[in-house]
Amino acid sequence: MSSSGFSLDQLSGNGSLSKDDVMQQVKSELAMANAQELISNINKHCFKLCVPRPGSSLSSSEQDSLGRCVDKYLASWDTVSRAYVAK
Fold it and tell me: What is the pTM of this model?
């Protein structure tokens, strides 16, 4: 079985997967990769901005800052994604 969850026979056309099945799997994997990239970028940017001195816990101001940063980052990402899809 390949890393995509399909066997080599299925991917080569000897199995029972249709073109639609393969396309759905590719879309699913792309969505997962996009979500992972989004989370990674949020962690990188917001944590750096909101937590100047990491410790064993977050202060209330750091928690508030992270919440606002994540909200803004998600809103921006949503706007860009919608513009990209509309092309």
Answer: 0.62
